[in-house]
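Structure ticket #2291
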Amino acid sequence: MSVPVLFYAPMKPPGAFPPSGDTHLAALFAEALMMAGFSPSLASRLKTYDGAGDAAFFAQLEAHADREVARIVADPALSQARLFFTYHCYHKAPDLIGPRIARALNIPYVIAEGSRALKQRQGKWAHGFAAADVAFAAADLVLAMTSRDAAGLATLADLRVEPFRPFIHTERFAVDDRTRAAFRESWRARLSLPSHAPMLLAAAMMRPGKKQAGFDDLFAIMRALETTPARDAVLVLAGGGAAEAAIRALMAPFGAHVRFAGLQPRDDMAGLYAASDLHIWPGRNEAFGLSYLEAAAAGTPSIAFDQAGVGAVVAPGKTGVLVPPFDHAAFAGAVAQLVGDRADLRALSAAAQTHVRTCHDIASAAAHLVRLLSPLVSA
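Resolution: structure written out below.
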């Protein structure tokens, strides 16, 4: 019999629109829990994300949280849970219900992807920072998915923090050499690419903020590529969103050297990853980025900036190359080096598939959850 668990994602519940890495990883965690022998039920769809740091809005969230706690504790089905599991808690989206429900039901409380930035203790997100700290203090266990998150959480005393690798369904993106060749031919024809031109892929949503800033970096990288032997490379952009028109205007000077593939269903991305020589996404201020893992599972190495949490998913010499943050010339040089050395690129492609299958697959994540959570629910 599976163990009933209350599952909650305060930033974005699974299935929320528009899709994002947060919604996808929330769904993956729920699935990994099921694979680990647990039975997760969505506790609430309350979104606590406060992008503006608005104290009045946050007060409304707290009132809504009061109602949600009362509803959940009074629900005979939900109150049978033996664990409360929260995915993603930080100053912009703290868990306002998990600690209180876990205390009321006398069950363990676990947070996955907890993040704590001390610089947010003061300022417009101070209320969210304090609320996240309440959640961390109540947690029996916090899973840190990057070394940066682990370092931030280490500033709290008496908090049990365990490293936990980001993960995906690697088999959904895996391709063999014959299938890769077919995908290359298909996508090159679809995008009208010259047969000799290296195909670079950037898979990212086109949203204002840090994502749009990543496209500004891509613009600078493409400019830098013009002075390298990879000047004939074509960059394919896969994604969509509110900033798409601005990004199309930004990339217009490159003409046919930048192509737009549109927003692709996640299950169809394997072919586009496999068709590409490299996945290049700078990763400016990324928590980590699941696209790097998806590309690696398809055998496509990534190049990214060595900053934020990207190092948790791009392993130099195994799944790709990390370059100094915001050094566009170094980034372009890494692109030129790899597309100019096909033997090196093939070796890195094979290593990427092996590494991500071994270290970042959902089956490994499920086994890790068994080891971490079983002692809590059996105590």
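Closing remark: The first helix runs from residue 21 to 35.
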